[in-house]
Design goal:
Elements (H helix, E strand, L loop, with lengths): L1 E6 L5 E6 L9 H6 L9 E6 L6 E6 L3 H13 L6 H9 L6 H4 E6 L4 H16 L18 H4 L1 H4 L3
Antiparallel strand pairs: 1-2, 3-4, 3-5
Helix pairs in contact: 2-3
The chain binds zinc ion.
């Protein structure tokens, strides 16, 4: 319900009560604050390095815990094809179990939206000096300025 107050021609104020017929469920605030319901979803995740505490931001169309296992497998087989693997192997830093290093940042399914969320989180982590150096962020896109200001909403550490 909204209250709408406006002047009428004789100088009095007229009070109107407006009932809202519908309300959008797709605002930026709702997008940033909705909680994932699936316990093992796909989406945007962070993988923390146990040595320097910086993070890799990734996207996964499959379960993020399965994706974590792929990263660990690449490390154990000395296969530095992923930025996180490259970081761990080249710097001789420590990786860890999913429970301590993996965090789902945003549950979403594969597609254009997922790329936007990944870019937003990469820029947020980059701007707060929390991104591993092996993960490149080229130009800061002004459309992602939210990444700098909405640290709490994005749950950036
Ligand atoms: Zn590290």
């Amino acid at each position: 319900m909204w209250l709408h107050i406006y002047p009428v021609c004789n100088g009095e104020l007229l009070l109107n009560i407006i009932n809202i017929a519908f309300c959008t469920t797709n605002t930026i605030y709702q997008q940033l604050t909705d909680k994932p319901t699936n316990t093992n979803p796909s989406g945007i995740y962070q993988l923390k390095c146990n040595t320097c505490n910086n993070a890799y931001i990734g996207q996964s169309g499959i379960s993020v815990t399965i994706r974590h296992k792929e990263h660990i497998c690449c490390i154990r087989t000395n296969n530095p094809t992923l930025a996180y693997t490259l970081h761990i192997l080249n710097n001789r830093h420590e990786y860890g179990m999913a429970e301590e290093t993996l965090k789902l940042l945003k549950s979403c399914s594969k597609g254009t939206k997922m790329y936007c969320w990944e870019t937003l989180y990469m820029q947020a982590f980059y701007q707060h000096n929390l991104l591993i150096a092996e993960e490149q962020v080229n130009d800061i896109n002004p459309q992602y300025q939210l990444a700098y200001t909405a640290r709490d909403l994005l749950r950036v550490p």
